[in-house]
Specification:
single chain; four-stranded parallel beta sheet; Rossmann fold; 2 domains; amino-acid racemase activity; alpha/beta; globular
Protein backbone atom coordinates (compact mmCIF):
# COMPACT_ATOMS: atom_id res chain seq x y z
CA UNK A 1 0.00 0.00 0.00
CA UNK A 2 1.34 3.43 -0.94
CA UNK A 3 1.03 6.11 1.71
CA UNK A 4 -2.46 7.55 2.13
CA UNK A 5 -2.58 11.14 3.37
CA UNK A 6 -5.81 12.10 5.11
CA UNK A 7 -6.90 15.52 6.37
CA UNK A 8 -9.18 15.35 9.41
CA UNK A 9 -11.13 18.61 9.72
CA UNK A 10 -12.75 19.65 12.98
CA UNK A 11 -15.20 22.21 11.54
CA UNK A 12 -15.64 24.12 14.78
CA UNK A 13 -13.08 26.54 16.24
CA UNK A 14 -12.23 24.53 19.37
CA UNK A 15 -8.50 23.74 19.17
CA UNK A 16 -8.69 21.72 22.39
CA UNK A 17 -11.25 19.40 20.82
CA UNK A 18 -9.03 18.93 17.76
CA UNK A 19 -6.08 18.14 20.04
CA UNK A 20 -8.06 15.48 21.95
CA UNK A 21 -9.27 13.85 18.74
CA UNK A 22 -5.76 13.91 17.25
CA UNK A 23 -4.20 12.27 20.31
CA UNK A 24 -6.75 9.45 20.25
CA UNK A 25 -6.61 8.82 16.50
CA UNK A 26 -2.82 8.85 16.36
CA UNK A 27 -2.77 6.25 19.14
CA UNK A 28 -5.34 4.04 17.38
CA UNK A 29 -3.48 4.20 14.06
CA UNK A 30 0.03 3.96 15.51
CA UNK A 31 0.90 0.88 13.42
CA UNK A 32 -0.13 2.49 10.12
CA UNK A 33 1.58 5.78 10.97
CA UNK A 34 4.83 4.05 11.97
CA UNK A 35 4.85 1.96 8.79
CA UNK A 36 4.27 5.11 6.70
CA UNK A 37 1.19 3.61 5.08
CA UNK A 38 -0.85 6.46 6.56
CA UNK A 39 -0.18 10.15 7.14
CA UNK A 40 -2.62 12.30 9.09
CA UNK A 41 -3.07 16.06 9.23
CA UNK A 42 -5.55 17.67 11.62
CA UNK A 43 -7.20 21.04 11.05
CA UNK A 44 -9.38 23.24 13.22
CA UNK A 45 -11.96 25.60 11.78
CA UNK A 46 -11.01 29.30 11.71
CA UNK A 47 -12.03 31.75 14.43
CA UNK A 48 -15.13 32.64 12.41
CA UNK A 49 -16.44 29.07 12.87
CA UNK A 50 -18.68 28.39 15.89
CA UNK A 51 -16.95 27.09 19.01
CA UNK A 52 -19.23 24.06 18.96
CA UNK A 53 -21.77 22.75 16.47
CA UNK A 54 -25.13 22.11 18.11
CA UNK A 55 -27.62 22.14 15.25
CA UNK A 56 -28.35 23.15 11.65
CA UNK A 57 -27.63 26.87 12.00
CA UNK A 58 -24.18 26.38 13.51
CA UNK A 59 -23.47 23.63 10.93
CA UNK A 60 -24.13 26.08 8.11
CA UNK A 61 -21.93 28.73 9.74
CA UNK A 62 -19.10 26.26 10.19
CA UNK A 63 -19.30 25.15 6.55
CA UNK A 64 -19.17 28.76 5.38
CA UNK A 65 -16.13 29.39 7.59
CA UNK A 66 -14.22 26.23 6.64
CA UNK A 67 -14.79 25.92 2.89
CA UNK A 68 -12.31 28.68 1.90
CA UNK A 69 -9.36 27.06 3.67
CA UNK A 70 -10.09 23.76 1.91
CA UNK A 71 -10.50 25.23 -1.59
CA UNK A 72 -7.65 27.77 -1.60
CA UNK A 73 -4.80 26.23 -3.61
CA UNK A 74 -2.33 28.18 -1.47
CA UNK A 75 -3.66 26.80 1.81
CA UNK A 76 -1.87 24.04 3.70
CA UNK A 77 -5.34 22.46 3.96
CA UNK A 78 -6.15 22.59 0.23
CA UNK A 79 -8.17 19.44 -0.45
CA UNK A 80 -6.16 18.36 -3.48
CA UNK A 81 -3.02 17.95 -1.36
CA UNK A 82 -4.70 14.97 0.31
CA UNK A 83 -6.01 11.57 -0.73
CA UNK A 84 -8.95 12.00 1.58
CA UNK A 85 -10.73 14.60 3.70
CA UNK A 86 -12.78 13.55 6.74
CA UNK A 87 -15.16 16.18 8.10
CA UNK A 88 -15.12 15.35 11.80
CA UNK A 89 -18.62 16.38 12.78
CA UNK A 90 -21.23 13.74 13.44
CA UNK A 91 -23.98 15.00 11.15
CA UNK A 92 -24.93 15.29 7.52
CA UNK A 93 -22.60 18.29 7.60
CA UNK A 94 -23.04 20.71 4.66
CA UNK A 95 -19.26 21.06 4.30
CA UNK A 96 -19.13 17.54 2.83
CA UNK A 97 -21.62 18.32 0.05
CA UNK A 98 -20.13 21.76 -0.62
CA UNK A 99 -16.59 20.42 -0.97
CA UNK A 100 -17.78 17.54 -3.18
CA UNK A 101 -19.57 20.09 -5.35
CA UNK A 102 -16.26 21.90 -5.90
CA UNK A 103 -14.37 18.67 -6.59
CA UNK A 104 -16.83 17.20 -9.11
CA UNK A 105 -15.83 19.76 -11.74
CA UNK A 106 -12.15 18.77 -11.42
CA UNK A 107 -10.10 15.65 -12.05
CA UNK A 108 -9.24 15.28 -8.35
CA UNK A 109 -9.68 11.84 -6.78
CA UNK A 110 -9.79 13.19 -3.22
CA UNK A 111 -12.29 11.24 -1.10
CA UNK A 112 -14.57 13.41 1.07
CA UNK A 113 -16.77 11.92 3.78
CA UNK A 114 -18.27 12.76 7.17
CA UNK A 115 -18.64 10.87 10.44
CA UNK A 116 -22.35 10.07 10.12
CA UNK A 117 -22.21 8.39 6.73
CA UNK A 118 -19.09 6.32 7.46
CA UNK A 119 -20.52 5.10 10.80
CA UNK A 120 -23.88 4.10 9.33
CA UNK A 121 -22.18 2.42 6.34
CA UNK A 122 -20.24 0.29 8.84
CA UNK A 123 -23.47 -0.83 10.54
CA UNK A 124 -25.08 -1.47 7.15
CA UNK A 125 -22.21 -3.79 6.24
CA UNK A 126 -22.50 -5.70 9.54
CA UNK A 127 -26.18 -6.16 8.61
CA UNK A 128 -27.06 -8.37 11.57
CA UNK A 129 -26.90 -6.39 14.82
CA UNK A 130 -29.29 -3.72 16.13
CA UNK A 131 -27.61 -0.33 16.42
CA UNK A 132 -28.29 3.12 17.78
CA UNK A 133 -26.52 6.43 18.35
CA UNK A 134 -25.59 8.23 21.56
CA UNK A 135 -25.14 11.94 20.86
CA UNK A 136 -24.54 15.15 22.78
CA UNK A 137 -27.34 17.71 23.22
CA UNK A 138 -31.03 16.98 22.58
CA UNK A 139 -31.23 19.22 19.52
CA UNK A 140 -29.33 16.57 17.55
CA UNK A 141 -31.85 13.76 18.09
CA UNK A 142 -34.45 14.68 15.41
CA UNK A 143 -31.73 15.98 13.06
CA UNK A 144 -29.73 12.75 13.14
CA UNK A 145 -32.79 10.50 12.98
CA UNK A 146 -34.07 12.33 9.90
CA UNK A 147 -30.67 12.19 8.17
CA UNK A 148 -30.13 8.49 8.88
CA UNK A 149 -33.64 7.45 7.89
CA UNK A 150 -33.80 9.53 4.72
CA UNK A 151 -30.33 8.91 3.31
CA UNK A 152 -28.20 6.15 4.80
CA UNK A 153 -30.08 2.94 5.66
CA UNK A 154 -30.07 -0.06 3.34
CA UNK A 155 -33.30 -1.91 2.60
CA UNK A 156 -31.93 -4.99 4.41
CA UNK A 157 -31.30 -3.00 7.61
CA UNK A 158 -34.78 -1.47 7.37
CA UNK A 159 -36.46 -4.84 6.78
CA UNK A 160 -34.70 -6.34 9.80
CA UNK A 161 -35.53 -3.30 11.98
CA UNK A 162 -31.88 -3.03 12.98
CA UNK A 163 -31.84 0.77 13.21
CA UNK A 164 -33.05 1.78 16.70
CA UNK A 165 -32.65 5.56 16.74
CA UNK A 166 -30.71 8.31 18.50
CA UNK A 167 -30.37 8.96 22.22
CA UNK A 168 -29.13 12.22 23.75
CA UNK A 169 -26.68 12.26 26.66
CA UNK A 170 -27.93 15.82 27.28
CA UNK A 171 -24.29 16.99 27.55
CA UNK A 172 -22.82 19.74 25.41
CA UNK A 173 -20.18 18.78 22.84
CA UNK A 174 -17.21 20.37 24.60
CA UNK A 175 -18.15 18.76 27.93
CA UNK A 176 -18.30 15.13 26.77
CA UNK A 177 -14.70 14.44 27.78
CA UNK A 178 -15.00 15.87 31.29
CA UNK A 179 -14.43 13.05 33.82
CA UNK A 180 -17.38 14.16 35.93
CA UNK A 181 -19.74 13.46 33.00
CA UNK A 182 -18.60 9.89 32.32
CA UNK A 183 -20.95 8.25 34.84
CA UNK A 184 -23.92 10.09 33.34
CA UNK A 185 -23.00 8.93 29.84
CA UNK A 186 -22.71 5.33 31.04
CA UNK A 187 -26.08 5.55 32.81
CA UNK A 188 -27.86 6.92 29.72
CA UNK A 189 -26.31 4.24 27.49
CA UNK A 190 -27.30 1.46 29.90
CA UNK A 191 -30.90 2.59 30.35
CA UNK A 192 -31.65 3.85 26.83
CA UNK A 193 -29.37 2.38 24.17
CA UNK A 194 -28.96 -1.07 25.74
CA UNK A 195 -31.96 -1.84 27.96
CA UNK A 196 -34.71 0.05 26.11
CA UNK A 197 -33.50 -0.06 22.49
CA UNK A 198 -31.69 -3.44 22.81
CA UNK A 199 -28.72 -2.15 20.80
CA UNK A 200 -25.65 -4.31 20.23
CA UNK A 201 -23.74 -1.62 18.32
CA UNK A 202 -23.63 1.86 19.79
CA UNK A 203 -22.24 4.64 17.64
CA UNK A 204 -20.51 7.40 19.61
CA UNK A 205 -22.26 10.15 17.73
CA UNK A 206 -19.97 13.10 18.26
CA UNK A 207 -16.26 13.71 17.72
CA UNK A 208 -16.22 14.76 21.36
CA UNK A 209 -16.68 11.10 22.34
CA UNK A 210 -13.48 10.07 20.54
CA UNK A 211 -11.23 8.07 22.83
CA UNK A 212 -13.99 6.90 25.18
CA UNK A 213 -14.76 3.61 23.43
CA UNK A 214 -12.34 1.54 25.54
CA UNK A 215 -13.52 2.99 28.84
CA UNK A 216 -17.17 2.49 27.85
CA UNK A 217 -16.55 -1.12 26.78
CA UNK A 218 -15.13 -1.88 30.24
CA UNK A 219 -18.44 -0.76 31.79
CA UNK A 220 -20.36 -3.53 29.98
CA UNK A 221 -18.17 -6.65 30.14
CA UNK A 222 -19.64 -9.76 28.59
CA UNK A 223 -22.62 -7.91 27.12
CA UNK A 224 -21.40 -8.17 23.55
CA UNK A 225 -21.72 -4.42 23.03
CA UNK A 226 -19.59 -2.80 20.32
CA UNK A 227 -18.84 0.91 20.71
CA UNK A 228 -18.00 2.62 17.43
CA UNK A 229 -15.63 5.60 17.59
CA UNK A 230 -17.01 7.62 14.68
CA UNK A 231 -13.71 9.37 13.93
CA UNK A 232 -11.76 6.10 13.93
CA UNK A 233 -14.19 4.35 11.58
CA UNK A 234 -14.25 7.49 9.44
CA UNK A 235 -10.48 7.46 9.01
CA UNK A 236 -10.56 3.73 8.26
CA UNK A 237 -13.25 4.03 5.57
CA UNK A 238 -11.64 7.06 3.90
CA UNK A 239 -8.28 5.28 3.97
CA UNK A 240 -9.75 2.17 2.34
CA UNK A 241 -11.49 4.07 -0.47
CA UNK A 242 -8.50 6.33 -1.13
CA UNK A 243 -6.21 3.31 -1.38
CA UNK A 244 -8.59 1.64 -3.81
CA UNK A 245 -8.71 4.82 -5.93
CA UNK A 246 -4.93 4.79 -6.11
CA UNK A 247 -4.81 1.13 -7.09
CA UNK A 248 -7.29 1.45 -9.96
CA UNK A 249 -5.61 4.59 -11.31
CA UNK A 250 -2.14 3.07 -11.33
CA UNK A 251 -0.81 2.04 -14.76
Amino acid sequence: MSQIHILVVNPNSSESMTHEVEQNIRALFKKELNSKSLALTFATGPASAPLQIDGKESSLRSAEACLPMLTDAGSVYFYNKYDGVLVACFSDHPLVAELLSVIKSTTSKTVVMGLLDTSIHYCNMINSKPFSIITSNKEWVPILNESVESKYLTSSVINQSLWKGTISSDIQVLDLHLPENFAKIVDVIRKENIERLKSKIIILGCAGFSGLQTSLSKEFPGAGIVFVDSVAIGVRVVMMIADFNKSVSSP
